[in-house]
Amino acid sequence: MKDNEIKICGLAAVRARFQRDAPSIVRLYFDHPTSKKVGLMCRALAAARKVYRCVEPSELEKIADSVHHGGIIAVVVAQPPKTPTSADIASWFRRHEDVVVLDRIGNAHNLGAIARTAAYFGVPRMVIAGDPESARPGAAAYRIAEGGLEAVEISGVPEIAPFLRALSAAGYDVVGAATRGGAAVGAAAGTWALVLGNEEHGLAPDVEAACTRLVTIPGSGRVESLNVSAAAAVLIRELGRPGARRQHRAR
User: Fold this and answer.
1) Which among 53, 127, 150, 185 is most buried, taking Cβ atoms within 10 Å?
2) pLDDT tens, 37-73?
3) Checking DSSP bridges between strand 25-30 and strand 72-77, what pairing results, if any?
């Protein structure tokens, strides 16, 4: 594989990529049971003179480097995440587009699960920290997202804290998820950015300081916290509860 190529596994994820950006698919591999469900994709690839092939399960495992391939693998050209400008942020806010910001989320499965949740609730974009600890969209994340990574635009920023300050200056309610000590979560009064911290260490101190408020999900106390992807689902649902939002006045 070339450096700019990634593998997308699972029928839901591959279908979502085909529907959003069919030309980005450069090769397609699938097993016999899945071959009955991908006729349209195969015809499109044939017309574009690209490789598509029905292979044995053992060969599919080799291509995927995993047994978790879901019967189909699309090799696609990956575009690096764009870095948003201040003009982009202002435009997002004018369009009332909520944002999920990931501060050093390191597990690709969590990245995929959060993207799936964001897509389910209609959050249009996610922003990922540029440091080496942060998971990037890849085979595992696409498989877990079940198509969610095609519905959510991914951006990248070198540092999270300055980006959060820019969001706040534009008018966003920047809500940090804290394991303890935050206020009770409720519906946001306007357009919001939810900031989720590293699975082990939580929000970095400078990131926490850049939030306009911190929230904590109350629990029984029998375990310390939720998995970050589970917490993301609870918080996104609460912040965006239908009928509870009052749009910010234009600034």
Assistant:
1) 127
2) 999 999 999 999 999 999 999 999 999 998 999 999 9
3) antiparallel
Do 110 and 156 belong together in one domain? Answer: yes
Here the CATH number for the domain that contains residue 63 is 3.30.1330.30
d(CA 217, CA 20): 35
Give the Cα separation of 182 and 76 in Å (integer). 41
Residue 152: what residue type?
V
246 domain residue, yes or no:
no
pTM value is: 0.89
Residue 54 near residue 33 (C-beta atoms within 8 A): no
Q: In terms of DSSP H, where are the helices of 84-227?
A: 86-94, 108-120, 139-145, 148-151, 160-170, 205-210
